[in-house]
Amino acid sequence: MVRRAVFLDRDGVLNAPVIRGGKPYPPDSLAALRILPGVDEALSRLRAAGYLNIVVTNQPDVAKGKQRVEVVEAMHDRLLRELPLDEVKVCYHSDDQGCECRKPKAGMLLQAAKDHDIDLPRSFLVGDRWRDVAAGQAAGCSCFFVDYGYDEKRPEGPYVPVKSLPEAVALILSRHSPR
User: For the segment 25-39, what is each residue's pLDDT rounded down to a tens digit?
Assistant: First the structure.
């Protein structure tokens, strides 16, 4: 059975990013991880409609020596325990390592599609940075951009601008028949 999924960036979509100088950064500890309002309910609605909820996140601070992999994994364990998520895919590489999994490349989405028999053109990506949207587009998904007005490069179209994951989920469920 071919399935549908919603791919979710982590920082800025599921949990609050740390903003410094107009740019978003991941929380630096498990204690600093704050799940955004409405995320649990939005993910529950997606799951009830038959979607897989799969996190695809770049965490280059591990490669740069600014974060320990154990801390990132503890955050992911907490998200998997507290939210209706099906999987967390993570890229620990930095840009200069040239991997295929780091967004804006579509490697994490393509691997998830292979692992879970996902129909990418009938799936979605929700992200808050240009790299997220570019990865979703490269995989053939429809994309939603949570626009926080960060002081950085903006995504190229097509995408639907939204203010939050709950808004994106409401649009997905209102415009697309489940299953």
Answer: 999 999 999 999 999
Spatial CA neighbour of 56 closest among 84, 86, 98, 30: 86
> Which residues make beta-bridge pairs with 7?
54, 125
| Sheet-wide strand order for 142-146 | 87-91, 51-58, 4-8, 124-127, 142-146, 160-162
Active site residue 9: yes
Q: How far apart are CA 123 and CA 117, in angstroms?
A: 12
pTM exceeds 0.90 = yes
Does CATH number 3.40.50.1000 belong to domain 4-175? Answer: yes
Q: Using 50, 70 and 90 to split pLDDT, how confident is the model at 177?
A: low
132 is catalytic: no
* Per annotation, catalytic residue among 9, 61, 128, 132: 9
